[in-house]
Amino acid sequence: MRLVAFSLILFLTCFYGFSQSQQASAVTGLDHKLKSGIFVKGLPTIGITLPNGTKTKELKDIKASHWDTNRFNPFKDEILTYPFKLTFDDSLYAAPVNKDMVITSRYGWRWGRAHQGIDIDLITGDEVVSVLPGIVRFVGYNSGHGKSIIVRHFNGLETTYAHLSKYAVKVNDTVQMGELLGKGGATGNARGSHLHLIVSYKGTPIHPEYLFNFTKNKGTIRAKEIWVTKTWTRPYFHSSRQRSKLELLKSKDEALASLTKEKEIYVVKKGDTLSRISRRNGVTIRTICVANNIKTTSVLRIGQKLVLDL
Description:
Layout: H1 2-28, E1 32-34, E2 46-48, E3 84-87, E4 103-105, E5 108-110, E6 113-115, E7 118-121, E8 127-129, E9 134-142, E10 146-153, E11 157-167, E12 174-175, E13 180-184, E14 194-201, E15 204-206, H2 208-211, E16 225-228, H3 252-259, E17 265-267, H4 274-281, H5 285-292, E18 305-307
Antiparallel strand pairs: 1-2, 3-16, 4-7, 5-6, 7-14, 8-13, 9-10, 9-12, 10-11, 11-13, 11-14, 14-15, 17-18
């Protein structure tokens, strides 16, 4: 009899505790319901209701616009408005090559042409991985970049991995940060084996080192929110031979203020003269000469960069 009474008291105590727990959940607004294979059939489940005002994160459909698995750059008709903001969910990225990254050529002007990415030294066969999570948009051969893979990430960025020797993924594959994409090589227009890494937004290449730390604090993203101006999407503002002075813009106000400092640059083309450049750009010959410390009789070179304002 005593055993029966003790069991009854124990049951009532547990039931009361469970009821109190439910009441506490009601007070805090937390009512949860979990389903798991470890639950025994017939036993009650527990429900979860998030408190009022709790926000849930929606996954952006990154395939909704300009998703083309056949074209290297499907953004030919896209016009960017500056400045624009990039947002990162994490403060880390994965080094594209699993070894000490040696940058052999930077984003900038090179041999009279735009070098729109960075070159990272590797040996043919070295593994190349995705710097951020995303979905593979393009896997194929490009005349200049050789065997290439393009991954679109959840903040709208795309990263291109060029001059590969082998592919390890296919289009529409979802990849995680640090996941194998392929093997490095020297396909396409490459002078020796290396990885040509391009970071772009809506088809416009961005200076990779403006977003990612490749030297100091390797493996880190410079900020969770970064504002981008033309300074960081125009190779002629930079030299591929040296590291650019990085001035990170973390707010719209900073970005707008920096726009007044940006100078308009003109790249000399075949047949150009000072008179022709002056007429087409609405700036006087004298202004061009003073801004660039040249004379009216100076001979212009194809690929030469001229500042068009003082």
